[in-house]
Design a protein that fits this description.
The protein is an alpha+beta fold. Helix content is 34%, strand content 24%. The protein has one domain (3-247). The chain has helices at 3-17, 19-31, 39-55, 111-118, 125-132, 164-170, 249-258, 263-281, and strands at residues 59-63, 78-82, 88-97, 100-104, 121-122, 145-151, 156-162, 173-177, 196-200, 206-211, 223-227, 235-237, 243-244. Strands 1, 2, 3, 6, 7, 12 and 13 form a seven-stranded mixed sheet that branches. A six-stranded antiparallel sheet has the order 4-11-10-9-8-5. Strand 2 (78-82) and strand 3 form a beta hairpin. The protein starts with a helix and ends with a helix.
């Protein structure tokens, strides 16, 4: 089995048996939005890495950190090691609202130009298979993205993993949608500033899209994207569906105090927090 897929299955088992652990950690992570709209994304990296180390006994995780960004071969944030099989794989953590989700930045800008050469409406299954097996789409088959999806209005969250194997297997057409076209997966939407290639299944249901990556495109207008609302059939929830979360205002106070206390105080606080985690493990 694919090492990341095996990890996902183990995470789902943990969630089904000890849902409180996942709810607690995700509540704390999304509480960080009270500090800043983007703060939760960075802290999710160290929070999930520590969650794996504390509660998933056959796995350990290492946070790569921003300092190594330029040396990364992939878009990973953490590396997970299976202690039993010794397999090691990178994972990119994404903390997004329930909607558009970037799966890959396509930083070498290969996907869109390659699709342009294939035509504006691709329906031949052999040609579609060739596209997914091409070098331009090599990253598509190595997507280890772990998206932490939140619905802030309803205070609920979900860890939804895109099933790229199912997506490639069930794509029946790839359509070019030009700049200015007022089209989305359901036929209507905002006028587009940049063209896309949209991937659809046999029911004309949306799967994902490749966005234009030219010189004038920003990070939101390039790479491989999907929609968590429109492509639910192509996601696997490793939290076994949506879970409710709540804000932890005490945690915000803890951060305030920690930023104004000494390392010695942090060491003492860490001991207390580890004791609390040990209690959680027994519940």
């Amino acid at each position: 089995m694919n090492p990341y897929k095996d990890f996902q299955n183990r995470f789902k088992v943990l969630t089904s048996k000890h849902k409180n652990l996942v709810v607690n950690t995700l509540s704390n992570i999304f509480t960080m939005r009270l500090i800043g709209n983007k703060t939760h994304g960075d802290l999710a990296e160290i929070g999930i890495a520590e969650f794996i180390n504390q509660f998933m006994y056959d796995f350990k995780s290492v946070h790569i950190g921003k300092d190594l960004f330029r040396a990364k071969e992939h878009e990973e944030d953490i590396v997970i090691i299976n202690e039993i099989t010794k397999s090691k794989f990178p994972v990119s953590l994404k903390a997004y609202g329930d909607g558009p989700l970037q799966l890959s930045t396509d930083r070498d800008q290969k996907m869109f130009p390659y699709l342009e050469r294939q035509g504006k409406r691709i329906t031949d299954r052999k040609k579609i298979v060739k596209i997914f097996s091409s070098s331009a789409f090599s990253e598509f088959n190595n997507i280890n993205v772990m998206p932490l999806i939140y619905d802030e209005k309803n205070k609920r969250c979900n860890i939804m993993v895109f099933d790229h194997e199912k997506a490639s297997r069930q794509t029946t057409q790839i359509l070019y949608i030009g700049k200015g076209k007022n089209l989305t997966s359901h036929g209507k939407g905002k006028s587009r500033k940049h063209p896309i290639f949209m991937f659809l299944d046999k029911d004309n249901s949306y799967i994902c899209e490749v966005r234009y990556g030219g010189a004038s495109a920003n990070a939101l207008q390039r790479g491989l994207w999907t929609q968590t609302k429109n492509a639910t059939n192509y996601f696997d929830s490793i939290t076994n569906g949506w879970i409710d979360y709540s804000h932890n205002h005490t945690l915000v106070k803890l951060f305030s105090l920690a930023l104004n206390s000494t390392e010695a105080g942090h060491e003492e606080a860490n001991k207390i927090l580890q004791k609390d985690i040990e209690k959680l493990k027994k519940t």
